[in-house]
Amino acid sequence: GDTLTGGMNADTFAFSNGNFGETDNVTDFTMGDGDVLDFSDLLLGVGANDGVTLDDYLEVTWDGVNSQIAVDLNGDASGFTDHFVVIEGQDLTSLGATQDQILAGM
Description:
Blueprint: E1 3-4, E2 12-14, E3 23-26, E4 36-38, E5 58-62, E6 66-71, E7 83-88, H1 99-105
Parallel strand pairs: 1-3, 2-4, 3-7
Antiparallel strand pairs: 5-6, 6-7
């Protein structure tokens, strides 16, 4: 996997298909700075207006230190084991009580 580090201003952290099962680490994601996580290359065929909910594709968890976003590339409920993104030092689960709320808050 890769280690991604942005800067002081808004950054876009993009994740691409092709590293099946690997884990990428984001060291300085800050929503307040306008940082964005871009999963569009991983979720090919999923559009903003096609009625698909992202919780079929992404699962956010918190281990007390970091958030992990686990990815199911095809959203077929086969498990969130295709790709992993660790957001260091951030509790993304605080954005909502359900996966839909968390993902909408991101």
